[in-house]
Amino acid sequence: MKRATLCFMLLSLIVSLDLWSDENLILQRVFVEPVVLETAQEVPGIFLEAGETLFALINTAQPLIRSEREDANSAIRTVINEADGELEVSFLLLKGGEELVKSIGVIPETERLSAYRDFLNRSAEEFIPFLDKVEPEVLVKELSTDEETRAVLDEIIFNESLEKPFEATLWVGVGTKNLDGDGGDPFYLHFPFHYFSEVTWFSAPNHGLSVSMLLEYSNLISYGRTFDDDRAASDNLYVLPGVGYTYRTIGRLSAGFFAGLNLGLVNITPREDLFNEGSLVLAQDESEWIITHQVIMKPFVSYAFNDTWSLKTSFALYLSLLDMFGISFDEDFSGEGGGGYLQFLNLGVGYRW
Q1: Where does the chain have alpha helices with state H?
Q2: CA count, 13 A, side-chain hemisphere, 142
Q3: What does the pLDDT read at residue 283?
Q4: How far apart are CA 320 and CA 341, in angstroms?
């Protein structure tokens, strides 16, 4: 019982492997060449279709595909000449210009039809073993275009490679204009103490959600007054995480827009005693952390060196909306923050993945 089961399993495996191998094969494509006449005597019309008749006869036993010469796996050539005053028909099966098999028959005039039928049957039997299924041939053709079309295609392919779902950018602020006209420097050189980083997930090629972090050390904004009621200078360290929205276009040279809200802490260290409404809030060289925020709007331009790295530039508007209305998270520092500043030059490096 075990031996019979083992034999059955082995036979099933052999049959399965044979069927699997057949699935990867295709029918041969055969080109039937026109009949070549090498005799001066009159040839009956039935012999002028000898190649077609042989193809049809083989096709009943071994399915074939009729094909043109340039696409064929093999070809059937028919040559008719004379031998001792009788018609001689030759069938040649060719592959790649080389002869695989040849069948020759002399067709006597007295028994022409029966001899011709027997010759056709014999030739078909000889040719069939050479016309089994074959492995498919994969042809790789080079796309040939003019230079202008090729440049357009290359640019389209490059643009598609830029549609990656994630992009990180590190910005360095360079030059800034203070929007608060009440004292302070009208222009401020931020570099190298202003950094803004963002990571954006583009759920669609052009629209993304961003998380960001603002790190800045400056004395651009004042958070109080001196004893003489002048604007107090202070060194401020900002650590403001945030969220935002980013829009981008796709291309080697592209543009976009970021808008976000950053809420966090600022460490204030006054250069002289800091007062608010006549009361001392923070003595010189002391420091204190308070909550603050910035609403950031930033249009930008980007140039992609490749599908991964890009160089960016922008200007950005930083607004302290609550400070514009004299409101603060901390009453001791209310109303002195100013309305914000315009960063007229930013440089950034972007990375996509």
Answers
A1: 2-23, 45-48, 50-61, 112-127, 147-161, 321-324
A2: 4
A3: 86
A4: 9
Rounded CA-CA distance 221/337 in Å is 6
Mean pLDDT for the chain overall: 83
Partners of 289 in the β-ladder: 267
CA distances from 306 to 6, 98, 252, 266 (A): 61, 51, 8, 38
The β-bridge relationship of strands 65-66 and 86-95 is unpaired
3-state secondary structure of 53: helix
Full-model pTM: 0.56
Beta strand segments in the chain, E: 29-32, 36-37, 65-66, 74-83, 86-95, 98-107, 166-178, 187-189, 194-202, 207-218, 234-248, 253-270, 274-276, 279-282, 288-304, 309-319, 340-352
- Tell me which residue has tokens 């069939």: 128
Q: Can you tell me the distance from the alpha carbon of 202 to that of 251, in angstroms, rounded to the nearest whole number?
A: 15
DSSP state of 334: T
Parallel, antiparallel or unpaired: strands 65-66 and 29-32: parallel
Residues of the chain with pLDDT under 70: 1-24, 137-146, 180-187, 278, 323-328, 330-332, 334-339
Distance of CA 124 to the CA centre of its chain: 52
